Amino acid sequence: MDYLNHFEQLVKKQLERVEAMKQQEDFVDYSKLDKIVIGTVGGDGIGPAITAQAERILAYLLADDIKAGKVELRTIEDLTIEKRAEVGQAIPDSVLVELKKCDVILKGPTTTPRKGDPWPNIESANVAMRKELDLFANVRPVNVPEKGLDWTFFRENTEGAYVLGSEGVNITEDLAFDFKVITSQGAERIIRAAFEFAKKNDKKRVTCVTKANVIKTTDGKFLDVFKKVAEEYPGIEADDWYIDIMTAKLVDEKRRKDFQVMVLPNLYGDILTDEAAEFQGGVGTAGSANLGKRYAMFEAIHGSAPRMVDEGRDIYADPSSIIRAGAMLLNHIGYTKEADKLFKALDICGQTEKKIQLTGRDTGATSAEYADYIMETIEKL
Ligand code: IPM
Ligand code: MG
I need a surface site. Which of 82, 91, 258, 273 has the fewest CB within 10 A? Predict the structure, then answer.
């Protein structure tokens, strides 16, 4: 391989991305749209089963505005591993066209092929969607009231170790290279989003997490931008930690309660949010928002659990994560009352009342029964 040429092409593309970011408009104002189109994507494995339940709940909460034509729920087909393998694309072109006709998207888990799988080595659909729709802010809240935890992670979603994750080079049989990219624009927009969130939600502290002592150029830039943006928010405490000690502090009962908003490059965000979600009951209970200025996508942060489907247990899959993603979607497009009710119902059904339980098999409730339980709970609020 002509690796110098390969590297030159990568640099060119990234410089183009910087230029595109400079031209970017501001966030969409959903209240100004005639109609908000919500696309739902089932994905793979248990995805279609759980997404269908989240869709039922959205249809129930938005019934009046759907009838009035102000909101449309639209099912987007074909973002499946079979179709993606067939056309050899992380997101088939035909699907991308449909996604771009939506304003916001609710997405079930999609299979990411790994070495040894029967699938061709296509890029993760999640990663591709984040890149294609420029969804730069991955917002992952973790809330455990009884432990006093109330964290919101702002994970950078379009650069870092991920943006060229499939573009690494084997220079020789013995020498492998990957690339990590941070841009001033990319760092600034996520860091600003974290501070704006803190300001709006009365949070007093924003923490930046990097490994800038070792990864000096890229993480160093991220941290420099953080310090600069922080100056514009004098009422908010801004501090920075390295990822290793941060990972440890999340299990330190005395210190962890003090963290509120955390902003971090892509890969650190990937790892730290899985750890954080564990305190809330695991990745299956977390939802995640992927926000860009034009589009936004909401997803469960767990995988597609193909084994559950093979064993015929997909009807018992836990839909809480994708339903929580649905509540975040409602919040984002301005249906804050409906979102609040749904968040409350999720807490009552999953943490306090627990009238029915999901076990992932026929000893517990089905996903549909659980969605019914949530809707009945909302009725009583
Ligand atoms: C996540 C997932 C994805 C990621 C995978 C499926 C590519 O782990 O959303 O955190 O690494 O971003
Ligand atoms: Mg992850």
Answer: 82
- pLDDT band of residue 112 (cuts 50, 70, 90) is confident
Q: Which homologous superfamily does the CATH classification assign to the domain defined by 22-135+292-381?
A: Isopropylmalate Dehydrogenase (3.40.718.10)
Ligand index nearest the alpha carbon of residue 274: 2
The closest-lying atom of ligand 1 relative to the alpha carbon of residue 109 is 6
- pLDDT tens figures, 328-365: 999 999 999 999 999 999 989 988 899 999 999 999 99
CA dihedral 266, 269, 273, 275 (to 10 degrees): 120
- The residue ranges of every structural domain in the chain are 22-135+292-381
Decide whether any atom of ligand 1 lies within 6 Å of the 112 Cβ: yes
The answer to whether 364 and 317 are in contact (CB under 8 A) is: no
Dist CA 118 CA 121 (whole Å): 9
CA of 29 to the centre of ligand 2 (A): 29
**Ligand 1 centroid, distance to 253 Cα (angstroms):** 27
Q: pTM value? A: 0.89
Ligand 1 contacts CB of residue 124 (under 6 A): yes
